Amino acid sequence: MIKPFSLQPLVHLAQQKNDAATRKLGQLNQQHQSAQEKLDALQQYRRDYQLKFQEAAKTGMAPDDMKNFQDFIGRLDQAIQQQKSVIEKAQAGVQNGRSELMDTTRRMKSFDTLAQRHAEAEKKQEAKSEQRSQDEHTGRFAAYRAAEKDSND
Questions:
Q1: Which residues contact 26 (CB under 8 A, 6 or more apart)?
Q2: What is the mean pLDDT of the segment spanning 84-99?
Q3: How many CB atoms lie within 10 A of CB 28?
Q4: Residue pair 100/77 in contact by the 8 Å Cβ criterion
Q5: 8-59 and 63-152 are packed helices; what angle lies between their axes, rounded to 10 degrees?
Q6: Which among 106, 83, 103, 101 is positioned nearest to 32, based on CA atoms?
Q7: InterPro entries recorded for this chain (predicted)?
Q8: pLDDT per residue over 25-56, tens digit each?
């Protein structure tokens, strides 16, 4: 009979931590992608607004309108810089998430290796026990045959 692996609760815990790290990395990747999409949208909006400004400037515009355009482009530039900062933080989070996932995966594989070794050792022990049982049975049968032969002689 195979004995249960004594470290099985730790194997299960390592698998749970690895699953959690995998989910967390997925969320971090999603946050990074979302932040990048926002930056792309801000940059596209700035380019579009800059073109509008240039078109309006060609036909002539009031100084107040020109100042409003420039102020708004300045605010877009600030928003773009803030979004770049968000992306840098998101990238750092993704990198930390990758490191955490690598650690939990390594730990889980270590426990899996121990569990496999335990199972192999148990199988070998069971095979030895079975062989011993067969040898005993064969020996008893041979002794029985010999005794039976002696009694017939």
A1: none
A2: 98
A3: 21
A4: no
A5: 160
A6: 83
A7: Flag_assembly_chemotaxis_eff, Flag_FliJ_proteobac, Flagell_FliJ, FliJ
A8: 999 999 999 999 999 999 999 999 999 999 99
Q: How far is residue 42's CA from residue 2's CA, in Å, rounded to a whole number?
A: 63
Give CA angle at 99 (117, 91), nearest 5°.
155
Q: Closest Cα to residue 96, out of 28, 30, 31, 34?
A: 28
The confidence score (pLDDT) of residue 149 equals 84
> What CA–CA distance (Å, rounded) separates 141 from 144?
5
Tokens at residue 63, please?
A: 């100084």
Q: How confident is the model at residue 64 (pLDDT cuts 50, 70, 90)?
A: very high
Condensed to tens digits (0 to 9), the pLDDT of residues 115-153 reads 999 999 999 999 999 999 999 999 999 988 888 888 877
With 0-12 / 13-18 / 19 or more C-beta atoms within 10 angstroms meaning exposed / middle / buried, residue 142 is exposed
Here the tokens at position 73 are 């482009």
